[in-house]
Amino acid sequence: MNDFNVNRIREDFPILHRKIRGRQLVYFDNAATSQKPLSVIETVSNYYKTLNSNVHRGVHFLSDEATNKYEEAREKVRSFINASSVNEIIFVRGTTEAINLIATSYGNSKISRDDEIIISALEHHSNIVPWQMLCERTGAKLKVIPINDKGEILFDEFEKLITEKTKLISVIHISNALGTINPIKEIIEKAHSRNIPVLIDGAQSTQHCRIDVKELDCDFFAFSGHKIFGPTGIGVLYGKEKLLDEMPPYHGGGEMIESVSFEKTIYNKLPYKFEAGTPDISGPIGLASAIDYINKIGIDNISNYENKLLEYGTTELMKIGDLRIIGTAENKASVISFLAGNLHPYDVGTILDHQGIAIRTGHHCAEPLMKRLGISGTARVSFAFYNTKEEIDLFITALRKAIKMLK
Ligand code: PMP
Fold first, then answer.
1. pLDDT value of residue 1
2. pTM exceeding the 0.85 threshold for the entire prediction
3. pLDDT tens digits for 368-389?
4. Rounded to the nearest whole angstrom, what is the distance from the C-alpha of residue 176 to the centroid of ligand 1?
5. Is there a contact between 330 and 152 (Cβ–Cβ < 8 Å)?
6. Can you give the pLDDT at residue 2?
7. How remote is the CA of residue 58 from the centroid of ligand 1, in Å?
8. 373: CB partners within 8 A, 6+ apart
9. What crossing angle do the helices spanning 389-406 and 345-353 adopt, rounded to 10°?
């Protein structure tokens, strides 16, 4: 793995050196949010120290500089996901807002009664509820691709769900609850053979693997800055320029207009048409710094290293008797959900927390998925490239102790 040195990398993340309840923090809740390298923290802090001003409207030096940095960040995101143009990069609050934007703007203008939208049984609530709301408004119908017990979508069933009424397919790239990597390229190809646009929820993939929206040929792609080592409150909606151009604005206000009169308002061009009001300015600048950091480490190095952690973590967990891994797809990212005997995940999580180990428990904002699997929730560990095998060992020892205590 060339010069990938996890101990050196860990030095970049101040929070990893915190003690929790007197123990070294082991942070295995990366699917919920990732930690931030010092370079990102300092970029955001420096923005407020040296650059703070409003964008796109000032004649003064600071405003000009802030605008340049804000737009440089857009270019950085464009290059990171290989979009064709900065006009295709819309800054939003996060994946949730990106999907709501599409469900509202694209949905209201292109989807009507009896039309159909397809999602999968693996979806996060963020990729379910906006479509349900759209269906309520329009009378459209939501159809769900079923999965097998391993947590993989059934491609044949997906093909059967497509009809001439299907107007949009919106699927998760990597499952936050199970780690399943969906065959999105095949899904997109199949959808396009029927002229149906596809939105990809990339909240859990952008931090783990290379995203090339041109190669994927997806129509929309959403991700959150806070999951890719950037700040909270900033995310990205990618959309093909032609589609975004045809869509009406999502929010009205300043920035998104060319001119306003009481008789007629002319909307601004892309991407500003979708960025009403003063945007989060430090957010994109911080996100750009996170992208620089990822590029420095190398996304392929990140993938390779995380796959090793996944393999090691899975092997070590499987050595524990009476433990079930939930989500055993062939193609998985570094997320492991599990149930230890019939212990409640919350109890397991609480005892681990007392030993400084942060994991996630519950339904992971995927209640319909949990229902399909016949469980109410799981305990989940999710690894980032700054985690180590030694941390997995600490976790396994702590988990064994928790199981002993709770039995
Ligand atoms: N989709 C998936 C797969 C997620 O994991 C998450 C966050 N847990 C979201 C959507 C929503 O992301 P955000 O809360 O950053 O908007």
1. 44
2. yes
3. 999 999 999 999 999 999 999 9
4. 8
5. yes
6. 54
7. 34
8. 149, 151, 326
9. 120
3-state helix vs strand vs coil in the chain, percent to 5: 45, 20, 40
In degrees and rounded to multiples of 5, residue 199 shows phi and psi of -105, 135
Nearest Cα residue to 334 out of 306, 298, 297: 306
Mean pLDDT of 110-116: 98
**Minimum CA distance residue for ligand 1 atom 12:** 95
In three-state secondary structure terms, 332 is strand
Our CA dihedral for 53, 58, 60, 64, rounded to 10 degrees, sits at 70
The CA-based diameter of the chain, rounded to the nearest angstrom, is 72
pLDDT 10s digits, 226-266: 999 999 999 999 999 999 999 999 999 999 999 999 999 99
CA torsion, ordered 367, 372, 374, 378, to nearest 10 deg: -50
Residues with CB under 6 A from ligand 1: 94-96, 124, 126-127, 172, 176, 201, 203-204, 224, 365
Residue 259: strand pairing partners: 266
E-strand ranges in 17-153 read 19-20, 23-24, 26-27, 89-92, 116-120, 141-145
Q: Residues of 246-278 as b/e, b for ≥16 C-beta within 10 angstroms?
A: ebebbeeeebbbeeeeeeeeebbebbbbbbbee
* pLDDT tens readout for residues 174-215: 999 999 999 999 999 999 999 999 999 999 999 999 999 999
Query: Which residue segments constitute the domains of the chain, with CATH numbers given?
Result: 6-30+298-406 (3.90.1150.10), 42-295 (3.40.640.10)
* Residue 218 designated active-site: no
**74 in Cβ contact with 86 (< 8 Å):** yes
